[in-house]
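Lab notebook page, bench 4
Experiment: in silico fold of construct C2
Operator: M.H.
Input chain length: 150 residues
Purpose: comparison with the prior construct
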Amino acid sequence: MDMNKMNKFFVVLGIGIGLLVSSLLNIAYPKIKYIDYSEAQIIEKAKELGMVSLKEVISMNEKKSAETALTKEDTNLIKEEPHPIEFVINKGENSEQIVDKLFEKGIIKDKKEFTDKIIEEGLQKRFKYGIYELEPEMDYESLIKVLMGK
């Protein structure tokens, strides 16, 4: 072999042996600092990082369920109080359009029954246009009287 090639070979061999020896020394004598933490310190560190204990989760769930129960009771109380619904009959609307709007607003529950009542009494073209305050639970007779302007 040529002297130049031999020098390159020994340089690479020396670097390889140096890396191997330094790796073995690092494995045998690591510079890692081991710390023994108490249970309280571990819990404190975990809370800092956002961990929540099981007891806290259970108590938060109980609070949320109690709050939702209260809000459900509040909404039930609100639903029990009927409030008047504003209803508008525009000029030129026919009875079919008026019945559809009454049904959509929840003032009547059955379109066919209300339509039959109007036809039975012959009141299809007697609705007065305007703005009305109607109760959701009105019976059909009083509703017809209000919409006729009586």
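Observations: The CA atoms of residues 54 and 125 lie 69 Å apart. The first strand starts at residue 85 and ends at 89.
Next step: discuss at group meeting.
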